[in-house]
Amino acid sequence: MEQLHARYDRHTWEQVTIGRSGAGVWRLSGPTDHFLKSVDGGTELFEEAERLRWLRAQGLPAPEVVELGGDDRASWMVTTAVPGKSLAELGGDEMLWTAGQITALAEIARALHALPVADCPFDRTLDVVVPQARSNAEAGLVDETDFDQHRLGRTALDLIKEVEATRPDREDLVVCHGDLCTPNVLLDPDTLTVTGLIDVGRLGIADRYNDLALTARSLGPANAGMFFEAYGEVPDPERLEFYRLLDEFF
User: Which of 75, 113, 120, 175 has the most CB atoms around its CB within 10 Å?
Assistant: First the structure.
Protein backbone atom coordinates (compact mmCIF):
# COMPACT_ATOMS: atom_id res chain seq x y z
CA MET A 1 0.00 0.00 0.00
CA GLU A 2 3.00 2.30 0.45
CA GLN A 3 3.43 2.54 -3.30
CA LEU A 4 -0.19 3.60 -3.65
CA HIS A 5 0.22 6.36 -1.08
CA ALA A 6 3.26 7.55 -3.01
CA ARG A 7 1.43 7.37 -6.35
CA TYR A 8 -1.61 9.26 -5.02
CA ASP A 9 0.22 11.61 -2.67
CA ARG A 10 -1.63 14.61 -4.11
CA HIS A 11 -4.94 13.12 -3.06
CA THR A 12 -6.77 13.27 0.23
CA TRP A 13 -7.57 9.77 1.48
CA GLU A 14 -10.91 9.26 3.22
CA GLN A 15 -12.06 5.81 4.33
CA VAL A 16 -15.58 4.83 3.27
CA THR A 17 -17.52 2.82 5.82
CA ILE A 18 -20.97 2.62 4.22
CA GLY A 19 -21.78 -0.82 2.78
CA ARG A 20 -20.62 -4.28 3.84
CA SER A 21 -18.31 -5.44 1.06
CA GLY A 22 -15.65 -6.78 3.45
CA ALA A 23 -12.99 -4.75 1.65
CA GLY A 24 -11.19 -1.59 2.70
CA VAL A 25 -12.49 1.30 0.61
CA TRP A 26 -11.09 4.84 0.36
CA ARG A 27 -12.15 7.89 -1.58
CA LEU A 28 -9.12 9.61 -3.12
CA SER A 29 -9.94 13.29 -3.66
CA GLY A 30 -7.53 15.37 -5.67
CA PRO A 31 -6.72 16.40 -9.24
CA THR A 32 -9.02 13.56 -10.28
CA ASP A 33 -11.29 11.68 -7.91
CA HIS A 34 -10.91 7.94 -7.51
CA PHE A 35 -11.97 5.10 -5.26
CA LEU A 36 -9.53 2.51 -3.95
CA LYS A 37 -10.66 -0.93 -2.83
CA SER A 38 -8.22 -3.27 -1.11
CA VAL A 39 -8.49 -6.84 0.22
CA ASP A 40 -6.04 -9.25 1.81
CA GLY A 41 -4.73 -11.34 -1.09
CA GLY A 42 -7.03 -13.42 -3.26
CA THR A 43 -8.32 -12.85 -6.77
CA GLU A 44 -11.72 -11.31 -6.01
CA LEU A 45 -10.76 -7.79 -7.10
CA PHE A 46 -9.40 -9.07 -10.40
CA GLU A 47 -12.72 -10.84 -10.94
CA GLU A 48 -14.65 -7.70 -10.01
CA ALA A 49 -12.55 -5.60 -12.40
CA GLU A 50 -13.40 -8.02 -15.21
CA ARG A 51 -17.09 -7.61 -14.40
CA LEU A 52 -16.88 -3.82 -14.27
CA ARG A 53 -15.27 -3.74 -17.70
CA TRP A 54 -17.88 -6.10 -19.09
CA LEU A 55 -20.74 -4.07 -17.61
CA ARG A 56 -19.41 -0.84 -19.11
CA ALA A 57 -19.07 -2.57 -22.48
CA GLN A 58 -22.81 -3.34 -22.32
CA GLY A 59 -23.56 0.36 -22.00
CA LEU A 60 -24.61 0.32 -18.34
CA PRO A 61 -23.17 2.86 -15.88
CA ALA A 62 -20.20 1.62 -13.87
CA PRO A 63 -16.84 3.02 -12.74
CA GLU A 64 -13.83 2.66 -15.01
CA VAL A 65 -10.95 0.56 -13.74
CA VAL A 66 -7.86 2.78 -13.52
CA GLU A 67 -5.40 0.46 -11.82
CA LEU A 68 -5.33 -3.14 -10.66
CA GLY A 69 -2.53 -4.76 -8.74
CA GLY A 70 -1.26 -6.47 -5.64
CA ASP A 71 1.71 -7.57 -3.57
CA ASP A 72 2.40 -10.34 -1.08
CA ARG A 73 0.02 -8.77 1.45
CA ALA A 74 -2.94 -7.34 -0.43
CA SER A 75 -4.56 -6.73 -3.80
CA TRP A 76 -6.17 -3.46 -4.86
CA MET A 77 -8.28 -1.83 -7.50
CA VAL A 78 -8.51 1.88 -8.27
CA THR A 79 -11.56 3.11 -10.18
CA THR A 80 -12.91 6.43 -11.32
CA ALA A 81 -15.35 8.17 -9.01
CA VAL A 82 -18.72 8.36 -10.72
CA PRO A 83 -20.96 11.33 -9.86
CA GLY A 84 -24.03 11.12 -7.69
CA LYS A 85 -24.86 9.65 -4.31
CA SER A 86 -25.72 6.13 -3.27
CA LEU A 87 -29.35 5.36 -2.58
CA ALA A 88 -28.30 4.46 0.95
CA GLU A 89 -27.04 8.03 1.44
CA LEU A 90 -30.16 9.52 -0.13
CA GLY A 91 -32.46 7.43 2.05
CA GLY A 92 -30.56 8.14 5.25
CA ASP A 93 -31.00 6.34 8.54
CA GLU A 94 -34.79 6.69 8.24
CA MET A 95 -34.73 4.79 4.91
CA LEU A 96 -36.91 7.44 3.25
CA TRP A 97 -36.82 7.46 -0.53
CA THR A 98 -39.00 9.27 -3.03
CA ALA A 99 -41.11 7.39 -5.53
CA GLY A 100 -38.81 8.70 -8.26
CA GLN A 101 -35.70 7.28 -6.58
CA ILE A 102 -37.28 3.86 -6.12
CA THR A 103 -38.51 3.90 -9.72
CA ALA A 104 -34.97 4.70 -10.91
CA LEU A 105 -33.71 1.66 -8.97
CA ALA A 106 -36.39 -0.53 -10.56
CA GLU A 107 -35.53 0.76 -14.02
CA ILE A 108 -31.80 0.00 -13.69
CA ALA A 109 -32.68 -3.47 -12.38
CA ARG A 110 -34.86 -4.06 -15.44
CA ALA A 111 -32.13 -2.78 -17.76
CA LEU A 112 -29.57 -5.09 -16.19
CA HIS A 113 -31.93 -8.07 -16.29
CA ALA A 114 -32.70 -7.36 -19.96
CA LEU A 115 -29.07 -7.92 -21.04
CA PRO A 116 -28.65 -11.04 -23.21
CA VAL A 117 -27.78 -13.97 -20.96
CA ALA A 118 -25.86 -15.63 -23.79
CA ASP A 119 -23.41 -12.71 -23.84
CA CYS A 120 -22.57 -12.89 -20.12
CA PRO A 121 -19.45 -14.95 -19.32
CA PHE A 122 -20.03 -15.09 -15.55
CA ASP A 123 -21.94 -18.06 -14.09
CA ARG A 124 -23.76 -17.52 -10.78
CA THR A 125 -26.42 -20.18 -11.21
CA LEU A 126 -27.35 -22.42 -8.29
CA ASP A 127 -25.21 -25.26 -9.65
CA VAL A 128 -22.22 -22.98 -9.02
CA VAL A 129 -23.29 -20.95 -6.00
CA VAL A 130 -24.81 -23.62 -3.71
CA PRO A 131 -21.57 -25.69 -3.65
CA GLN A 132 -19.66 -22.44 -2.96
CA ALA A 133 -22.00 -21.74 -0.06
CA ARG A 134 -21.35 -25.20 1.41
CA SER A 135 -17.61 -24.78 0.94
CA ASN A 136 -17.72 -21.41 2.76
CA ALA A 137 -19.74 -22.97 5.60
CA GLU A 138 -17.39 -25.94 5.99
CA ALA A 139 -14.31 -23.69 5.87
CA GLY A 140 -15.64 -21.43 8.63
CA LEU A 141 -15.81 -18.42 6.31
CA VAL A 142 -19.39 -17.44 7.13
CA ASP A 143 -20.00 -14.66 9.67
CA GLU A 144 -22.74 -16.17 11.81
CA THR A 145 -23.10 -12.93 13.81
CA ASP A 146 -24.27 -11.15 10.64
CA PHE A 147 -27.24 -13.39 9.87
CA ASP A 148 -30.67 -11.85 9.40
CA GLN A 149 -32.39 -11.36 12.74
CA HIS A 150 -34.61 -14.43 12.56
CA ARG A 151 -31.61 -16.68 11.83
CA LEU A 152 -29.31 -15.45 14.60
CA GLY A 153 -28.21 -18.25 16.90
CA ARG A 154 -28.11 -20.86 14.15
CA THR A 155 -24.92 -22.16 12.56
CA ALA A 156 -23.80 -21.98 8.95
CA LEU A 157 -23.62 -25.77 8.78
CA ASP A 158 -27.23 -25.93 9.93
CA LEU A 159 -28.36 -23.29 7.43
CA ILE A 160 -26.62 -24.89 4.46
CA LYS A 161 -28.81 -27.95 4.95
CA GLU A 162 -31.84 -25.66 4.67
CA VAL A 163 -30.42 -24.13 1.47
CA GLU A 164 -30.03 -27.56 -0.10
CA ALA A 165 -33.45 -28.73 1.08
CA THR A 166 -35.35 -25.65 -0.15
CA ARG A 167 -33.42 -25.06 -3.39
CA PRO A 168 -35.90 -24.09 -6.14
CA ASP A 169 -36.33 -26.58 -8.98
CA ARG A 170 -36.19 -23.86 -11.62
CA GLU A 171 -34.33 -20.62 -12.25
CA ASP A 172 -35.52 -17.57 -14.20
CA LEU A 173 -32.07 -16.72 -15.52
CA VAL A 174 -31.03 -13.12 -16.22
CA VAL A 175 -27.87 -11.08 -15.75
CA CYS A 176 -27.88 -10.20 -12.05
CA HIS A 177 -25.83 -7.66 -10.12
CA GLY A 178 -25.56 -10.13 -7.26
CA ASP A 179 -25.73 -7.55 -4.46
CA LEU A 180 -28.21 -4.97 -5.74
CA CYS A 181 -28.57 -3.10 -2.45
CA THR A 182 -28.97 0.62 -1.85
CA PRO A 183 -25.25 1.31 -1.10
CA ASN A 184 -24.32 -0.14 -4.50
CA VAL A 185 -26.50 2.04 -6.74
CA LEU A 186 -25.42 5.65 -7.35
CA LEU A 187 -27.98 8.20 -8.46
CA ASP A 188 -28.00 11.84 -9.58
CA PRO A 189 -30.46 13.25 -7.04
CA ASP A 190 -31.61 16.00 -9.40
CA THR A 191 -32.17 14.08 -12.63
CA LEU A 192 -32.87 10.69 -10.97
CA THR A 193 -30.44 9.10 -13.43
CA VAL A 194 -28.49 6.10 -12.20
CA THR A 195 -24.84 7.08 -12.57
CA GLY A 196 -23.11 3.92 -11.43
CA LEU A 197 -23.43 0.32 -10.27
CA ILE A 198 -20.65 -0.64 -7.87
CA ASP A 199 -19.51 -3.70 -5.86
CA VAL A 200 -20.22 -5.99 -8.80
CA GLY A 201 -18.02 -8.89 -7.70
CA ARG A 202 -21.01 -11.27 -7.76
CA LEU A 203 -22.40 -10.13 -11.11
CA GLY A 204 -23.40 -13.01 -13.36
CA ILE A 205 -26.14 -15.23 -14.71
CA ALA A 206 -28.61 -16.06 -11.94
CA ASP A 207 -32.29 -16.13 -11.08
CA ARG A 208 -33.68 -12.58 -11.11
CA TYR A 209 -34.76 -13.16 -7.50
CA ASN A 210 -31.09 -13.18 -6.54
CA ASP A 211 -31.33 -9.41 -7.07
CA LEU A 212 -34.97 -8.80 -6.20
CA ALA A 213 -34.69 -10.44 -2.78
CA LEU A 214 -31.68 -8.40 -1.69
CA THR A 215 -33.01 -5.16 -3.15
CA ALA A 216 -36.32 -5.52 -1.33
CA ARG A 217 -34.53 -6.33 1.95
CA SER A 218 -32.28 -3.30 1.52
CA LEU A 219 -35.29 -1.02 0.93
CA GLY A 220 -37.28 -2.40 3.86
CA PRO A 221 -40.90 -3.56 3.92
CA ALA A 222 -42.31 -0.03 3.68
CA ASN A 223 -40.63 0.56 0.30
CA ALA A 224 -40.39 -2.93 -1.22
CA GLY A 225 -43.94 -2.91 -2.55
CA MET A 226 -43.30 0.30 -4.50
CA PHE A 227 -40.14 -1.25 -5.95
CA PHE A 228 -41.90 -4.43 -7.09
CA GLU A 229 -44.70 -2.40 -8.66
CA ALA A 230 -42.20 -0.26 -10.58
CA TYR A 231 -40.19 -3.33 -11.60
CA GLY A 232 -43.32 -5.16 -12.72
CA GLU A 233 -43.18 -8.27 -10.56
CA VAL A 234 -45.66 -9.77 -8.11
CA PRO A 235 -43.25 -11.02 -5.43
CA ASP A 236 -42.99 -14.71 -4.57
CA PRO A 237 -42.32 -14.87 -0.79
CA GLU A 238 -40.71 -18.32 -0.92
CA ARG A 239 -38.21 -17.29 -3.59
CA LEU A 240 -37.45 -14.05 -1.71
CA GLU A 241 -36.71 -16.04 1.44
CA PHE A 242 -34.54 -18.61 -0.34
CA TYR A 243 -32.26 -16.03 -1.94
CA ARG A 244 -31.94 -14.10 1.31
CA LEU A 245 -30.97 -17.35 3.00
CA LEU A 246 -28.40 -18.08 0.30
CA ASP A 247 -26.93 -14.60 0.70
CA GLU A 248 -25.96 -15.42 4.30
CA PHE A 249 -23.00 -17.42 2.94
CA PHE A 250 -21.37 -14.60 0.93
Answer: 175
